[in-house]
């Protein structure tokens, strides 16, 4: 490899003694989602690479929002969200061999999908003679879905709703007022063996108030309740045997509900805080831990000035990706192979791999996507024989575009991974 060396002087100091104090601070960022409507938007979930939403703010084919003639409230429907657009949710029916809408003419509620993509749960009240909500599920067979099956607890005398299927435990969590009636909902779970359901078991979080909208991630139960909190409905989690009320700004003095946790630092929820209690919108939250460091230095001993060699930056082509993808194409792998050859030629080089996206979709989602792109390139480099200790990844989301996001061509350039080659610093 051809190097261009130049010398520069750097004065190093040695710290003989110091006292370092670490203080952790959590920074929570709340963002409004781009697809919110003028109605209630809730039940937002990302499962099997797709995003789902419950909304009362979409017009039907007549250009009107359908209302319940008894309650005078708009009906809720389930939708798929893609590229900030809300689309009708359809499944490929085994019986009719065609795409069929999940929605009915009445209320349709939150959906849940198993990790393997073979179980699809949803809430619906069109099957009830008394308008009570029930949970139904479809089973995928060779890519086609069965007709809806009724969960055994469904009944015309009470509501069974808010399904969430935890694939790790093969357990369906849901809300129902079948024990207490009225607005006194509790959370239950029922185990599934692939054929039969166990009898419902009450969750430990249940109280004299309402507990609804369960969701499980990594063994932690997230749920909504109107027991003591900041507002009407608040968000809680049950972890390691402890019932924890989530702090502001995730909870507010308004209604906060329907949390979906991607991991410990990223999730989504609904709240009517932005409309002053009029209707619910979906928000994302990210949690970052900052660690400020205080270092009182007691003694500094200067050491001799030394010369360090550095390298003029080496330019490598960007690796580009298709929309909403982190799959590396064969053409882009040829570009990465150039970096592989460079790294094998000079063992002293290290590589910083930085993922980027265009600005389509929420910031939190693009942050994850940019990380997946950087990790995909890193994994390819490792597979080609480059030590993982020589690779550092960064991910910027859509915060550092190299072209305008106003055009398809510009967005295509921004969907990229960039390389930065640096030498090992040695004395």
List keywords for this structure.
about 425 residues, mainly beta, Neuraminidase, 60s Ribosomal Protein L30, Chain: A, 2 domains, four-stranded antiparallel β-sheet, about 10% helix
Task: Describe the protein's architecture and organization.
This protein has 427 residues and is mostly beta strands. Residues 1-18 and 305-313 have low confidence and may be disordered. 10% of the residues lie in helices and 41% in strands. Strand 22 and strand 23 form a beta hairpin. The strands form ten sheets. Strands 11, 12, 13, 14 and 15 form a five-stranded antiparallel beta sheet that branches. The protein has a four-stranded antiparallel beta sheet with strand order 4-26-25-24, with no helix packed on it. The chain folds into two domains: 25-290, TolB, C-terminal domain (Neuraminidase, 6 Propeller); 309-423, OmpA-like domain (60s Ribosomal Protein L30, Chain: A, 2-Layer Sandwich), CATH 3.30.1330.60. The protein has helices spanning 330-345, 363-383, 408-414, and strands spanning 7-10, 13-18, 21-22, 25-32, 41-47, 50-55, 77-82, 85-88, 90-92, 99-101, 108-113, 119-124, 134-141, 144-145, 149-150, 160-166, 171-176, 186-191, 201-202, 211-217, 220-225, 234-239, 242-245, 256-263, 266-271, 281-290, 293-294, 297-302, 306-309, 319-320, 349-355, 391-395, 416-423. The longest helix is centred in the C-terminal third of the chain and has 21 residues, at 363-383. It is globular, with a radius of gyration of 27 Å.
């Amino acid at each position: 490899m051809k190097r261009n060396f130049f010398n520069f002087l750097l004065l190093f100091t040695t710290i003989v003694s110091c006292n370092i104090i670490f203080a952790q601070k959590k920074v929570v960022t709340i963002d409004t989602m781009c697809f919110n409507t003028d109605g209630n938007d809730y039940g937002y979930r990302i499962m099997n690479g797709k995003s789902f939403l419950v909304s009362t703010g979409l017009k039907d084919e007549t250009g009107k929002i359908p209302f319940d003639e008894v309650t005078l409230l708009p009906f809720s429907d389930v939708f798929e969200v893609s590229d900030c657009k809300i689309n009708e949710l359809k499944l490929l029916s085994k019986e009719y061999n065609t795409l069929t809408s999940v929605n009915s003419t009445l209320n349709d509620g939150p959906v849940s999908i198993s990790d393997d993509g073979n179980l699809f749960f949803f809430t619906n009240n069109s099957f009830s003679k008394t308008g009570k909500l029930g949970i139904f599920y479809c089973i995928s067979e060779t890519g086609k879905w069965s007709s809806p099956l009724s969960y055994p607890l469904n009944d015309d005398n009470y509501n069974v709703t808010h399904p969430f299927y935890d694939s790790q435990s093969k357990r369906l969590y849901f809300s129902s007022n079948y024990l207490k009636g009225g607005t006194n909902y509790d959370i239950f779970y029922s185990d599934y063996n692939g054929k039969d359901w166990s009898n419902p078991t009450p969750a430990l979080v249940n109280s004299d108030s309402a507990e609804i909208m369960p969701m499980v991630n990594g063994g932690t139960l997230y749920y909504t309740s109107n027991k003591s909190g900041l507002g009407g409905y608040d968000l809680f989690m049950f972890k390691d045997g402890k019932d924890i009320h989530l702090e502001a700004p995730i909870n507010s003095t308004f209604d906060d509900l329907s949390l979906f946790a991607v991991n410990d630092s990223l999730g989504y929820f609904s709240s009517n805080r932005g409309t002053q209690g009029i209707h619910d919108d979906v928000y994302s939250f990210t949690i970052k831990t900052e660690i400020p460091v205080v270092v009182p230095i007691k003694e500094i001993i200067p050491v001799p000035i030394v010369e360090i060699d550095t390298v003029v930056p080496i330019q490598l082509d960007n690796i580009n990706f298709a929309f909403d993808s982190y799959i590396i194409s064969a053409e882009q792998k040829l570009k990465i192979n150039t970096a592989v050859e460079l790294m094998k030629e000079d063992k002293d080089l290290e590589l910083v791999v930085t993922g980027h996206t265009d600005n389509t979709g929420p910031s939190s989602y693009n942050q994850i996507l940019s990380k997946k792109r950087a990790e995909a390139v890193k994994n390819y480099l490792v597979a080609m024989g480059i030590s993982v200790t020589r690779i550092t990844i960064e991910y910027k989301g859509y915060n550092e575009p190299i072209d305008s996001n106003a055009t398809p061509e510009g967005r295509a350039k921004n969907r990229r991974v960039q390389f930065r080659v640096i030498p090992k610093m040695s004395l």
